[in-house]
Design goal:
There is one protein chain. The chain has 403 residues and is α+β, with helices and mostly antiparallel strands. The protein folds into 3 domains: 74 residues, Uridine Diphospho-n-acetylenolpyruvylglucosamine Reductase, domain 2 (2-Layer Sandwich), CATH 3.30.43.10; 119 residues, Uridine Diphospho-n-acetylenolpyruvylglucosamine Reductase, domain 3; 160 residues. The chain contains 13 helices and 18 strands. A 7-stranded antiparallel β-sheet has the order 15-12-14-13-17-18-16. It has a 5-stranded antiparallel β-sheet with strand order 5-6-10-8-9. 39% of the residues are buried.
């Protein structure tokens, strides 16, 4: 039987046998495609069955939102858009071992709220992606910009549970790497759901007080860099440091955070908190002595009001050492372009990017540096990932190439 849209009703009927009807929502569709639905598994078993169905029907499974071109690119292939918001249980909290095990659909903000009630936290900063799910943060490798305390996401992830495109399940054992051989979990961190869906994760947790993001304003990039590098030299070691100038279309956010023409560069510092052995006052005393302390509205997500969210950031991001950052600051002088973003600052340097839609000589100087430092051609790891995709997902089920 065919619907008025030309879709086989059997596909929807088969999905309803796997998950309840209220967990299925029709998506963008045309008369020529094979049907599209957002599906919300609530358990690992439902997720496994959905992927088995997709494998049997040669359906495409996406971990992102629908796009109109999907139907054109995939033709008669049915499309599934996975949503993980029903998979948000905290399965285990072990304060003795310092670990928490959660389903991947829980939001980072919700996880940190639950941990803060017990005076714990993870090693991840939350501000840039607080509404993103844990699974999204891990699969998209968002720590490429705001990294965990010890430098890499891998150190904070003890084990993962993953469902493969054919519905089979695998998981790490949470043991030291030298005891278990190759690092299974590393294959899926940053893979963007290309050859496996993360459904569960065990993370390290740490004692912590309430987390805050402290903000300051600088007259130019050189002054901001001086303050940051001076704080690092003093051993203040905050959880994360970020420099930015608001995007051209975020003038309302610029005013709300307290930036002015005289102080256009924002410095955001996230301390570890007093239980980490570094009182917040040490950090505030240092930055307030050289920069202008700001007091944005409480509860306001500064990032959303100043720049596109990290997951929506489409411009290239490159690592830059301190010497090159200082050269850039000299080249820019007092005229810093809007939409400048320098994140994950450490003793080595930081990650640099510039928002789209910014023109002018200063913007050209930033883009020239980004272009110079971008790697040419596919890296060895990217070639390995392409080969792994062909091996683990020969039918191109998960986030199909080119779609």
């Amino acid at each position: 039987m065919i619907t008025s849209h030309g879709q086989p009703t059997s596909y929807l009927d088969e999905l309803r046998r796997i998950v309840p009807t209220e967990q299925i929502e029709p998506q963008l569709e045309t008369a020529a495609d094979g049907g599209a639905w957002a599906v919300e598994p609530a358990t690992q078993i439902e997720l496994v069955e959905v992927l088995k169905w997709a494998n049997g029907r040669h359906a495409a499974v996406f971990t992102r939102r629908p796009r109109r071109k999907d139907g054109e690119l995939l033709g008669r292939r049915p499309r599934i858009y996975l949503r993980g918001r029903r998979m948000k249980r905290v399965k285990d909290l072990d304060i003795v071992s310092g670990t928490v095990t959660v389903q991947s659909g829980i939001a980072m903000s919700e996880l940190h709220r639950l941990l803060e009630e017990r005076s714990f936290t993870t090693g991840f900063p939350t501000r840039p992606w607080r509404q993103e799910s844990v699974g999204s943060v891990l699969a998209a490798a968002l720590d490429a910009h705001w990294g965990p305390r010890y430098g890499t996401m891998e150190d904070q992830v003890l084990s993962l549970g993953v469902v493969f495109p054919d519905g089979s399940v695998a998981g790490g054992r949470g043991a030291p790497r030298k005891a278990v051989g190759p690092d299974f979990d590393r294959l899926f961190l940053g893979s963007r759901g290309r050859y496996g869906i993360i459904y569960e994760v065990t993370l390290r947790i740490y004692p912590s007080a309430t987390r805050v993001a402290m903000s300051y304003a600088a007259p130019d990039l050189a002054t901001a860099l001086d303050a940051v590098q001076g704080g690092i030299a003093l051993g203040l070691d905050p959880r994360a440091i970020e420099l930015l100038t608001p995007a051209p279309d975020r003038s309302w956010g610029r005013k709300r955070v307290g930036l002015t023409d005289a102080h256009p560069v924002l410095v955001i510092v996230e301390p570890w908190g007093p239980l980490a052995g570094r009182p917040i006052s040490w950090i505030d005393n240092h930055f307030a002595a050289t920069l202008k302390r700001l007091e944005p509205p409480l509860g306001w997500n500064m990032h959303e009001g100043l720049l596109p969210a990290p997951r929506a950031w489409a411009e290239p991001v490159v690592g830059v050492r301190w010497a090159r950052l200082r050269e850039l600051a000299v080249a820019l002088g007092n005229d810093v372009p809007p939409g400048l973003w320098i994140v994950r600052l450490s003793r080595h340097g930081g990650w640099l990017s510039l928002a789209s839609g910014v023109d002018g000589p200063q913007a050209d100087a930033v883009r020239a540096l980004v272009s110079e430092l971008r790697p040419a051609g596919p890296l060895p790891w990217e070639r390995f990932e392409d080969a792994l995709k062909r091996e683990l997902d020969p039918k191109d089920i998960l986030n199909p190439t080119g779609a």
